[in-house]
Amino acid sequence: MSDKNNIHLAVDAVVFGYQPQKGISVLLIERKYPPFKGNWAIPGGFVLEHESLEEAVTRELAEETGVKITYLEQLYTFGKPDRDPRKRIVAVAYFALVRPEGFSLSADTDASDAKWFAIDELPPLAFDHDQILKVALTRLRGKILYEPIGFELLDEKFPFSSLHQLYETVLGGTIDRRNFKKKFLKLGLVEELNEQRKQAGSGRPARLYRFNEERYFGLKQTGNLFELWLPSGVK
To answer: Are 130 and 26 spatial neighbours (Cβ–Cβ below 8 Å)?
Structure first.
């Protein structure tokens, strides 16, 4: 058996964005060089010899889009022999969910442009990036059912309707609001505040809530994470 190894290692960053009025979007870059020059793709690139995977994915994301994220969760490893026409490349994909308005996009290095695309209005993607996106979206929808990752997308104080809308948007279906609220309040994951806020298009102010981070991490340490039902109509 030959010791020669022609497998190269890369990382990809699937960054989902959430905005109440626009729904779920994904950050893509326009490739500057072949292969797939001019096509849209997930940000990513090769891991340098001195880097960890986490260092490589944060560097590539910052270089190609100008977006700096301190934590991305590892998603899956994609390694089909023909996934890249240049050579055998194994890619470790990561994903994150952020608020797009918190970032200023700036394409550089291998990218000629960086842009947010609505999840249901994506352009044709380079390589196997459509498959990577499908896996990432499935993971996101699965994880939000047992871990409250969506709280980072809300204001520190929020009306409960904002939390309900976030879950319906991510899951892509209708959730019974009364049961949804009852579940969160019973688990103590949100605190009702003695504050109200006037909402656009609403006749009266809405009660505000706050995420109980201490309660969540206490449940997590004991292994008692919450589980939400998969609503009818959600696929």
So the answer is: no
> For residue 113, what pLDDT band results from cuts at 50, 70 and 90?
very high
Q: Encode pLDDT of 44-71 as tens digits.
A: 999 999 999 999 999 999 999 999 998 8
The 3-state secondary structure of the chain, one letter per residue: CCCCCCCEEEEEEEEEEEECCCEEEEEEEEECCCCCCCCEECCEEECCCCCCHHHHHHHHHHHHHCCCCCCCEEEEEECCCCCCCCCCEEEEEEEEEECHHHCCCCCCCCEEEEEEEECCCCCCECCCHHHHHHHHHHHHHHHCCCCCHHHHHCCCCEEHHHHHHHHHHHHCCCCCHHHHHHHHHHHCCEEEEEEEECCCCCCCCEEEEEECHHHHHHHHHCCCCCCCCCCCCCC
